[in-house]
Amino acid sequence: MATSSLPPLNSLRVFEITAKQMNMQQAAAILHVTPAAVSKQIQLLEQYLGTPLFARSHRRLQLTPAGEKYYAHVSTALNSIRHATREASQQAESKALKIRAYTTFAMYWLIPRLTSFHSLFPDINIELTTSLRWVDFDTENVDAAIRLGDGNWPGLIALPLIPNILTAVCSPALSKTLHTLDDLKKTTLLHTLARSDDWQHWLASQGKKDFDAFHHRSYESSVLVYQAAMRGQGVGIAQKALVLPLIERGDLVYAFPHELDMKSYTYYFVMPGNRPISPDLQAFHDWLINRAEVSG
């Protein structure tokens, strides 16, 4: 190997993601390749360098001392390339603010309020995408995101937005059959896969820890739970701030008056801490925080 030459660039990218995940199957899923393809690229890089980068034992991966040192350099270099690419592309074309959110949050909270932002800042273009996946600011072209969690994410700026208050909702017709919590045992509970413990938390807050309902159905996102509940297919667990438009329209009603505030486990506006905040992003940030304060 000539000391001035570069290793295979694809192998570097595979190595970085594998070292970050410490799991070849997860790395393969991110790269949309097979675990065998990931393993082959790692082997090519190790052969090129003449030293092992991972210590393999059973199903666990661990970086060797040489691998840890190499990962630190490779990660820094690739992040530098990503940032340089982002800056160059921003100068070459009109920049849109790329915001990531959850589908339900975007539909029922953010989009209804964006009209005021566009009126205040007509020259700022918002590119809004939705996903349940956690955003990786190092590898994805995203400026900021709205994420649910405890806000403790090292390297990120996380600002709380709205309270995460859990409540049970159902169709007006179904509500007439519900008088006590025990009536839930005779109906179907609608769950969101992304927050599979919400029903458990809500019931436990009322002393119902081992609650056996008649039936359970699960959906990918809350918007699907709300649609099923509107059609009388069961009682859904909802986030009050997001379901409120459907309550106000009369499509859904509160099944019971009890609410559970999840405190710090709520929605946050998240930005990478290692990037300068552009004037457009600062304007969106200030507007969003103001809208969140107004909505309570």
- Helix proportion: 40-55%
- Secondary structure class reads alpha/beta
Largest sheet: 6 strands, mixed
Q: How far apart are the termini?
A: 62 Å
Q: Which CATH architecture of the largest domain would you pick?
A: 3-Layer(aba) Sandwich
Radius of gyration: 24 Å
Q: Count the beta strands.
A: 13
Q: Give the class-level CATH name of the largest domain.
A: Alpha Beta
**CATH topological fold name of the largest domain:** D-Maltodextrin-Binding Protein, domain 2
Tally of discrete structural domains: 3
Annotation field: number of helices: 10
Beta fraction of the residues? 15-25%
Write the layout of secondary structure elements.
Blueprint: H1 9-21, H2 24-31, H3 35-49, E1 54-57, E2 60-63, H4 65-92, E3 97-101, H5 103-120, E4 126-130, E5 144-149, E6 156-160, E7 165-170, H6 172-175, E8 188-192, H7 198-204, E9 215-219, H8 222-230, E10 235-239, H9 240-249, E11 253-254, E12 260-261, E13 266-272, H10 279-295
Parallel strand pairs: 3-4, 3-5, 8-9, 8-10
Antiparallel strand pairs: 1-2, 5-13, 6-13, 7-10, 7-11, 7-12
Helix pairs in contact: 1-2, 1-3, 1-4, 2-3, 5-9
Protein name: LysR family glycine cleavage system transcriptional activator
Domain HTH lysR-type: 7-64
Family: Belongs to the LysR transcriptional regulatory family.
